[in-house]
Specification:
CATH topology of the largest domain: Rossmann fold
Largest sheet: 9 strands, mixed
Number of domains: 5
InterPro entries: A-galactase_NEW3, Class_I_gatase-like, GlcNAc_PI_deacetylase-related, LmbE-like_dom_sf
Number of helices: 20
Structural class: alpha+beta
Number of strands: 45
Distance between the termini: 83 Å
Strand content: 25-35%
Oligomer: single chain
Organism: Hymenobacter sublimis
Keywords: Signal
CATH architecture of the largest domain: 3-Layer(aba) Sandwich
CATH class of the largest domain: Alpha Beta
Protein name: PIG-L family deacetylase
Length: 881
């Protein structure tokens, strides 16, 4: 087998997607994967299975991890999960991140889950804008045609034999996004095979119609006693001896990666029936893949490949996997010939190319694994600025007895801009002795025009329902410039182009290192992403993506700045150097009628990662209008302006993610009166309400469970419980009497929303109330005041309908469905066509004090700078004063 240039085939192959390029988007910044002998054998068996299935739903956590684990590891199919959204509109159980930041976390949680259950992860550009009650509402916010186009693109790209939806296309799905995902899947089933639908895609892919579509129904949707005989049954609970786990055990570990949603799961062992209801396509009698040839016979001339693989499996020695390398190299040579040899003037056969490329990538992983060949390329720093050079520490270890020679290694950036360089070390040629590591240095320079490592779907503003992929991103990902093609070809490397970034989970790594090995007489090229490795004294080795940062990042302290009077506020702006020796100035851009002192600051950051914080005194002038506006911080360096910040999201279960949010913050000017001063705040799942209370002048004391004592609580004018506190703070089940005594003795307790599942105690209030999943999703739904004389609506601020204008995402959630008459409902509102809900705010007198439960989404409205939310919260914590 020889790696050879494919330039003569470039035009034909441009229309095809390659498995290798798909892999470049998966599982960045992970410790190099090692495979056990039994996992290698499982991989060999998978080489002989040419079948594919795509699972489709709406959100992270919607997927059936047990069925995915079974399909990927039991049926040995190419298995994918297409999530319409990234879960941006949900709540966060592990921290304060919401919206786009939460979407990044949940993207990584899905990737972590797929690394466990063996599936692959795909997305559309749909934005999770929050709970939706109907698909009609969903499609007024999503661009249905674009979401359908993305779904069709993934189907044409991955060519699944079978589609499976998690939800039915009707109200049983329980969420408008859920229902919409099933409707779209049925339409995509037809559209993917129609050349008249989305013909612009056919420059890169060919039409593909799956064999059939199923709905994966179950206890969520089926009524007790319903006849299930008409459904196909699949036992997804079997035990896989090569993995030493059942698919239920694998699924539990996979699902438990959804930590931001609190979905830690217990393993299930034994029979686990999954039910598939036929929806479209050829109807099978007993098996979802009935009538689909999943052997090498589905590829013209593929029988010879299957025989070679059978021979490798037959001779496999689990005590010496490297003995299989020679056979795998023969398999690879035949696959490459069938995949790349195209007779003159003829088009490539799609099935041959797709499965050839897919299986070549699998063979490469198996060869590397059988050799115990460890390769990694780590940058000496975790971030690099535009125009800077990057030094790499490269490590290669052959842990087999096979003869392996490293011929070449070189690095190239993953985007192609003017000024990018490839660094080549052509003098490496060295025999890799068994067990002896080879370490050397490489490097590359980042173009001065390189894009910062902002997640591609967050680079430009989209709409409420759709993310936008900038044109430059799509252009960069649609091919190699001729100069790069020549450089790669000169080193014996294939050039295959034509992949759009649509559907992919994350950015490419900033750069890759290509290794060219001589194994016996055969050449093999393997790649690894460039990343950063560090050693934590507790966690051990940790990997994170190498990110490209701007020369200077600009962060504004805080989320919203609230001016309840004309007194100035200090607004800190922190400048962070992306490279050494950054000098410039920073200023605030303010709306008309506002002013800052001073007008600007100069800064001089001598070293990389150095930070300097400057403080502006901002106040509204006589011309400043009441309501919400925004300010922006802008740094100027060498005539170029920069207005993006730096935000690292760090959790142990996912790789560190770095975002570059715009350096903007809401400015809120409002007429606000308040009573009381000292607030005790017990955090729940994490929110930014304490900062909002400080913004309006309160002294906020963050409490721990051990601080909830009778004596300590006595000093607070109000005690506020953070969102989902009764779901996340286990000690509340024993501390509840203390909180109620505080109320009984004259205190004021404000409880923010609690989910109706998983409360630490059955009753969270002084009198019975029943939590539910009821909500009002239309954020600006008209509000009726049930008792206009209620103190919460009048003191110290007069609440009007205007205070419910400009809300974001939703008005409220998890409203009680029933409550004791001692609770007084305060307001009423409804989504279109629904009965009014009256439990957004419930207040009860208890002893000398007051208890308030509110499902209003204050945790979203306050950081967004919604004036009415500040006035409502102030009235709540002021009650009784």
């Amino acid at each position: 087998m020889r790696i050879r240039s494919l330039r003569p085939l470039r035009a034909a192959l441009l229309a095809l997607l390659t498995h290798a390029l798909i892999y470049s988007f998966a599982a960045q910044a992970q410790a190099p994967k090692t495979y056990s002998s039994s996992e290698i054998l499982l991989g060999l068996k998978k080489l002989n299975v040419l079948g594919s299935v795509l699972y489709i739903a709406a959100h992270p956590d919607d997927e059936n991890t047990r069925l995915i684990a079974y399909m990927a590891n039991g049926r040995l199919l190419e298995t994918g999960y297409l999530s319409c959204t990234r879960g941006d509109g949900g709540q966060n159980l592990i921290g304060p991140e919401l919206r786009e930041q939460l979407g990044v976390i949940r993207t990584q949680e899905l990737l972590a889950a797929r690394r466990i259950d063996g599936g692959r992860q795909f997305f559309t550009r749909a934005n999770d804008f929050g709970f939706s009650k109907t698909p009609d509402e969903t499609f007024t916010i999503w661009d249905k045609e674009q979401v359908l186009s993305d779904m069709v693109w993934v189907i044409r790209q991955r060519r699944p034999d079978v589609l499976i939806t998690r939800f039915p296309p009707d109200s049983r799905a329980g969420h408008g996004h859920h229902t919409a995902s099933a409707i779209l899947a049925a339409e995509a089933f037809e559209a993917a095979g129609d050349p008249k639908r989305f013909p612009e895609q056919l420059k890169y892919v060919q039409v593909w119609k799956p064999k059939r579509l199923f709905w994966n129904t179950g206890s969520f949707f089926v009524k007790q006693g319903e006849d299930m005989s008409g459904y196909l049954k699949v036992d997804a609970g079997a035990y896989n001896p090569l993995l030493g786990q059942s698919y239920g055990e694998i699924a539990a570990r996979s699902r438990s990666q959804h930590k931001s949603q609190g979905f830690g799961s217990a393993a299930q062992r034994g029979e686990a029936l999954e039910y598939l209801q036929y929806v479209k396509g050829d109807k099978p009698k007993s098996d979802p893949f009935e009538g689909i040839d999943m052997s090498w016979n589905r590829v013209p001339g593929g029988a010879a490949v299957g025989k070679l693989i059978d021979e490798v499996i037959r001779k496999y020695d689990p005590s010496n996997p490297s003995a299989s390398v020679a056979g795998l190299l023969k398999v690879r040579e035949l696959l490459e010939f069938k995949t790349t040899y195209i007779p003159r003037h003829s088009a490539p056969e799609p099935q041959t190319v797709f499965w050839g490329e897919t299986k070549i990538a699998e063979v490469d992983i198996l060869i590397q694994s059988a050799l115990g060949l460890h390769i990694e390329a780590n940058a000496s720093q975790s971030a690099v600025s535009q125009g800077d050079s990057v030094k790499l520490n490269v490590e290669v270890v052959n842990r087999s007895i096979e003869s392996v020679i490293l011929k070449h290694a070189f690095c190239r950036p993953n985007t192609f801009q003017k000024g990018s360089l490839i660094a080549v070390d052509s003098s490496i040629r060295t025999v890799l002795k068994p067990g002896v590591g080879k370490n050397f240095r490489l490097g590359f320079r980042v173009s001065s025009q390189e894009l910062v490592s902002q997640p591609y779907w967050l680079r430009e503003s989209g709409t409420t329902g759709m993310y936008k992929i900038p044109a430059i991103i799509q252009e960069i990902n649609q091919g190699f410039p001729e100069s790069y093609e020549k450089q790669l070809a000169d080193h014996g490397l294939n050039v295959i182009t034509g992949q759009s970034i649509v559907g992919t989970a994350e950015n490419k790594s900033a750069a890759k290192v290509y290794f060219q090995f001589l194994i016996g007489k055969e050449l093999l090229v393997l790649t690894v992403p460039v990343q950063y490795k560090s050693t934590d004294p507790v966690e051990g080795e940790k990997y994170r993506p190498l990110v490209v940062v701007p020369p200077v990042a600009v962060n504004i302290g805080g989320r919203a700045y609230v001016f309840a009077d004309n007194q100035p506020k200090t607004i800190p702006v922190t400048l962070r150097a992306g490279k050494a020796g950054v000098k410039g100035s920073v200023a605030l851009t303010l709306p008309q009628g506002w002013k800052s002192e001073p007008a600007s600051f100069t800064f001089d950051l001598a070293s990389k990662d150095a930070e300097q914080t400057v403080q502006f005194r901002v106040q509204p002038g006589g011309g400043a209008q009441e309501g919400k506006t925004e300010l922006r911080a802008v740094a100027t360096v060498d005539g170029q302006t920069y207005s993006r910040g730096y935000q690292a999201i760090e959790y142990n279960h996912i790789p560190t993610q770095v975002l570059f949010p715009e350096a903007v913050a809401p400015l809120v000017k409002l007429d606000l009166k308040r009573k009381g001063q000292e607030i005790g705040y017990l955090m729940g799942a994490g929110d930014e309400v304490p900062d909002a209370l400080r913004q309006i002048g309160y002294t906020v004391n963050l409490l721990k469970p051990e601080d909830l004592t009778d004596q300590n609580l006595r000093r607070f004018d109000a005690v506020v419980l953070g969102v989902r506190a009764y779901n996340t703070v286990d000690r509340l089940k024993t501390l509840q009497p203390t909180l109620l005594r505080y109320v009984e003795n004259g205190g004021n307790l404000v409880v923010q929303y609690v989910t109706n599942r998983g409360t630490v105690i059955p009753q969270i209030g002084p009198y019975p109330l029943t939590l539910s999943s009821d909500r009002v999703t239309v954020e600006n739904a008209a509000v009726t005041f049930l008792n206009p004389q209620q103190p919460l609506l009048n003191s110290p601020n007069k609440i009007t309908a205007q205070d419910f204008e400009g809300w974001v995402q939703e008005q409220g959630l998890y409203y009680p469905s029933a409550w004791d008459p001692k609770y007084q409902p305060v307001i009423s509102s409804a989504d279109p066509g629904e009965k009014a809900k009256e439990s957004a705010i419930l207040v009860a007198n208890y002893g000398k004090g007051h208890y308030i439960y509110t499902g209003l989404s204050l945790f979203r409205e306050l950081p967004a700078g919604v004036p009415g939310a500040y006035r409502l919260l102030t009235n709540m914590v002021s009650l009784g004063k």
